[in-house]
Amino acid sequence: MTLQTTNSFQSLQDAVSAVCGDDVKILRQSPVSGGDINLAYQLTLSDGRKLFLKENAADKLDFFVTETEGLAAIRGTNAITVPEIYGYGTDKDHSFLLMEFMEPGSRQKDFFEDFGRRLAVMHRADCREYTGEGSFGFNSDNYIGAGHQENTPEKSWIAFFRDHRLLPQIRRAKPNFDEEALKVFDRLLDRLDQYLTEPEKPALLHGDLWSGNYVVGKDGLAALIDPAVYVGHPEADIAMTELFGGFPRAFYDGYYEVMGRTPGYEERRDLYNLYHLLNHLNLFGSSYYGAVMRIAERYS
What we know:
Strand 5 and strand 6 (94-100) form a beta hairpin. This protein has helices at residues 12-20, 61-76, 111-124, 157-172, 179-190, 234-241, 249-259, 265-284, 289-299; strands spanning 7-9, 26-31, 39-45, 50-57, 85-91, 94-100, 142-144, 147-149, 203-205, 214-216, 222-224, 230-232. It contains nine helices and twelve strands.
C-alpha cells in the first residue's frame, strides 16, 4: 500500500480512496494520545486495514506539507525508517495528513546501538540537494513543534545558527526579558564563533530528536516521526537527544562507532539546546526562563 507520489486531496475520503480503492470506506476513527499540536486518530477501514490520521485547523495545512517534506528527506537517505505518507489536504473546517499506521513491535536486542548507527548513517548522507546555493538550512521553512522554524540557507553553520536559530527565538521571546537580559543575548550572539565550530560535512538533521519522536517499528527497529528537518551540524541532533533525560548509553556507542567523536562537543551541547529551550519558552511560558538564562549567561 504505497503511493509513488504524495497528493493533495479535497477530502479525507478522497485520500483513502486513492490509497485503498474506491470501494474502501472509513469504519472507525479512534483517538490516539501522545501529541500536543495535532489531533491524532487510528482509522479502521472497511477492508480491515488501518491508517494513521493527523488533523488540525484548516489554516494549518502547512504543518502537514512540511512534515511530508521532512519525512521524504529522511527517507531519501536510505538510513532509517519513517512512516509512509499517503496524502494531505483540507476537509471542511480542518486540514489532515494521512499516513501509514505503524504497528508497534518488540525492540531487537541491539535496538539502541542499531538506532545510533542508523542515525549516524543518515548524518553522513549527501544532503546538498536540500540547501540550494547554501550549505546549511533547507529548501523551505518548517516548524519546531508549533513554532515557526526559519531555514534560509547559509554558507556558514555558525552564521546559520546565529541568524536563523537563536536570533528569531530571542526576538520572539523579547517580552520575557529586561534590558540586562537582552544585553546578555547580544554578547552571546557576538561570541558564537568562540564556541561553535563548522562541521567537517553538513548533515541532514531530524531537528527535534527527543524520546517522543521515535517509535519501535514492526521489525523491532527504530523509526523516526515528527521531524523538524534541516541541514546543520550533526552535534545539534545529538545535543537534543540529551536535553530531556537522554537516550541509553548504547545509542551513543552505536552512533560514535560510525560517526566518530569530535573534541569539545560537551562544551557546545548546551548552546545547541538553548535554541530548543527558547522555543519552549515561547510556546509554553515562563517555566523555561531560568534554564534559558543560565545557558545564555554561561556563554555570554
